[in-house]
Amino acid sequence: MKVSIIIPFKEETGYLHECIKNCLDLDYDDFELILLPDKKINIKGKRIRVIPTGSIGPAQKRDIGSNRAKGKILAFIDDDAYPAKDWLMKVVRNFKDDIACVGGPAVTPERDNLLQKASGIVLSSRMGGGTETYRYISGKRKYVDDFPSVNLSVRKDVFLELGGFDTNYWPGEDTKFCLDLVNKKYKIIYDPKAIVFHHRRELFGPHLKQITNYALHRGYFVRKFPKTSFRLGYFIPSILVVFVVFGLAACVFIDLFVWLYTGVLSVYFMGCVLTGINTRNIKLFVLVLFGIIATHISYGVYFIRGLFKVGLYK
Predict the structure, then answer these.
(1) Are both 189 and 247 inside the same structural domain?
(2) Across-strand partners of 188?
(3) I need a surface site. Which of 46, 102, 131, 254 has the fewest CB within 10 A?
(4) What is the pLDDT of residues 170-217, one digit of tens each?
């Protein structure tokens, strides 16, 4: 079964060349590699097709690549990620019966720097990632209804039937696409062995910028598309933020509330500490400890903003 690997990006980077090299080394014979830069680039190869798109968003680039693809399966991967050698073998084996889409974990590479590794630990830990840790480390094989496009493969006929990604939404076009799949009764399977390696954004600035973007769109989607976004797990950081702010005020007026307030925050802080200790590295311990707290605060605040934001997507 022919697979079209689709990589949207703006310009050449070291990560891009790493991604291309590992794609070309895959232990799968029947695939093509579609590169979608803003401008023409000088990258050639037997399996490679370069399609300059101009300065447009990743979702639009993926749609262009999909329309030009020759494969029956579209395999999306980001330019700052690269696949495990058996990635396509693991992906393709899932396309049978009523499975239309396959997602797999995006694992932090071992050679990422300390700040990137800390970001990866925050996202993949139960304290930091909550119920979504399977997106960053191998979990249990299961059906899902929402998955990021960094490691997402779909049957081309289904993709075209649904009209591709809704380019009105970014970030969040992958969430909307998965919702479209679910609404049409198609199934999405998570295969923990279909692995790609995804370079993380460094703590704290780049990591938190990404987190706030995710939170803003998820908060908006709770209103717009509640079927796959109105879930308790997405609300927890915001509940924590509200508890911290208003709980402090309550402590001034209600003496007994002080015990509840300090008790809850003590348990929370201890959970963060234990997650940091599990790294067995003093530098990572400090980064992960404060990284989890900063992630929760950032996500919590921007999720609330997304809930009430009007005209977030034009």
Answers:
(1) no
(2) 101, 144
(3) 46
(4) 788 999 999 999 999 999 999 999 999 999 999 999 999 999 999 999
Kindly report the pTM of this predicted structure. 0.93
SS3 241: helix
Asked whether residue 314 is domain-assigned, the answer is no
Residue environment code for 4-37, b if the CB has 16+ CB neighbours within 10 A, otherwise e = bbbbbbbebeebbebbbebbeebebeebbbbbbb
For the record, the structure tokens of 153 come out as: 């493969």
- 307 Cβ partners below 8 Å, 6+ apart? 219, 220, 222, 223
Same-domain check for residues 21 and 37: yes
Structure tokens at 53: 């798109």
Handedness of CA 178, 180, 182, 186 (dihedral sign): negative
Range of the domain at 52: 3-202
Most distant pair of Cα atoms in the chain: their distance: 73
Number of domains making up the chain: 2
